[in-house]
Design brief:
Layout (H helix, E strand, L loop, with lengths): L1 H4 L13 E3 L4 H11 L3 E5 L4 E5 L19 E3 L8 H11 L3 E6 L2 E7 H8 L15 E2 L4 E2 L4 H11 L3 E5 L5 E6 H7 L1 E3 L8 E3 L19 E3 L4 H11 L4 E4 L5 E4 L1 H5 L12 E5 L10 H15 L6 E14 L2 E12 L2 E10 L2 H19 L9
Parallel strand pairs: 1-2, 8-9, 13-14, 16-17
Antiparallel strand pairs: 2-3, 3-4, 5-6, 7-15, 9-10, 11-12, 14-15, 17-18, 18-19
Helix pairs in contact: 9-10
């Protein structure tokens, strides 16, 4: 996936389907959102840009009188030469699902988590990633008998655009999204070509969540591949998947969780990874596969050890047995003023040896966190 992370955004961006002025109304935005099936829109201010989605307009009781400039989130645009990794970093840090691309102060495109996710599918190493590697545990939910106003409050509190719906026994019954709510709060005008909706003061806040929830859930298991999950996103036109777990707990996967995989490659800015001896062997293992595996280990390791500065991996072939070869893979982890970490793994196949190495490296970094002295800055 490294090749995707460092692509230019111009190679994955799409033309912006919705661009509004800050003086346009929420009803205009919602009408176009419904008609085009979009998820976000760019909002142009005098000296800045913003982004608006369904969750941003949940509180607009009178969408025909509420201006987009009052609800849009301010975002920093990127130029066409920025990398996909920069776009993903900006989306995650700003908690938005898209970033505008500008040239000469004009919006020429937009990169959303969906474009990035689709690009990631073309990477050979993406096939190895499973749902449990990216899912986030559900920290909030709503009861089927709770009011819609309760769901809205929880969405605001946790900045979530979707909520699992459970019953009294914590059995999963459905899911409710911000889009479900805003599309019910407005009524379609007779002139659909104008793309506007008219808001009404409604009693819908008092309706139970079960009246609006989607009962046709997209579900998966933790070890299911992300590749098959994304195909189901497309097939069923959904962007939320519930990952079933034990003891009636569950995780959530959306495109936003999937693109966080690319953040693994930010460690290359501070950690130098060298792989020695790889070019000597032809074991049907691509070097990007190795880099992806090591990057994921280092990303987890930075939670425990922020002093790692270099990783040197040395590959050697020890013997052959027919068409198989027995490999030795050594990793040396250097850090600031701390003992060297040495890890060695073996395997009859290079992929097998690297899997073992990454598992051992992960355990060693975690164990070393208690013993290391505090790093001077």
């Amino acid at each position: 996936m490294k090749e995707i992370a460092f692509k230019k955004v111009s190679q994955v961006m799409r033309a912006p389907s919705l661009v509004f002025s800050s003086t346009d109304t929420v009803s205009e935005f919602l009408g176009s959102l419904h008609r085009l099936g979009s998820y976000e829109a760019v909002v142009v201010f005098r000296n800045k840009l913003g982004l608006v989605t369904a969750i941003d307009v949940l509180d607009a009781l009178h969408p025909e009188r509420t201006l987009l400039g009052r609800v849009a989130r301010s975002v920093s645009p990127l130029n066409r030469d920025a990398t996909v990794l920069e776009a993903v970093s900006s989306m995650i840090s700003n908690r938005v699902r898209a970033i505008p691309i500008v040239e000469d102060r004009e919006v020429i495109g937009i990169v959303s988590c969906v474009e990035v996710m689709n690009a990631m599918m073309k990477s050979p190493t993406f096939r190895e990633v499973v749902c449990e590697e990216v899912m986030k545990l559900s920290t909030a939910s709503v009861n089927v008998n709770d009011k819609v106003s309760t769901a809205r409050s929880i969405m605001y509190e946790h900045d979530m655009s979707n909520l699992p719906v459970i019953d009294e026994k914590r059995q999963l019954k459905g899911i409710i999204t911000a889009r479900d709510i805003v599309f019910v709060f407005i009524q379609l005008e007779e002139s659909m070509t104008r793309g506007e909706f008219t808001g009404e003061s409604t009693r819908i806040w008092d309706l139970p969540v079960r009246n609006l929830m989607d009962v046709h859930l997209l579900t998966a298991k933790g070890r299911d591949s992300l590749m098959s999950l994304i195909r189901n996103f497309r097939k069923f036109k959904k962007e939320v998947c519930i990952v079933k777990r034990y003891k009636r707990t569950f995780g959530i996967v959306t495109p936003m969780e999937i693109i966080t995989l690319l953040l693994d490659f930010r460690v290359e800015e501070v950690v130098h990874v060298r792989i020695l001896g790889f070019s000597e062997f032809d074991d049907f293992l691509d070097i990007t596969t190795i880099q992806d595996k090591v990057a994921r280990v280092l990303k987890r390791g930075f939670t425990f050890r922020d002093d790692i500065m270099e990783v040197i991996i040395d590959i050697k072939r020890r013997k052959r047995a027919g068409k198989r070869a027995f490999y030795q893979v050594k990793a040396k982890v250097r850090s600031f003023n701390n003992p060297l970490i040495n890890v060695t793994a073996y395997g009859w196949y290079l992929a097998e040896a690297f899997d073992d190495l990454c598992n051992k490296l992960d355990r060693r970094i975690r164990k070393s966190k208690e013993r290391r002295p505090r790093r001077r800055r």
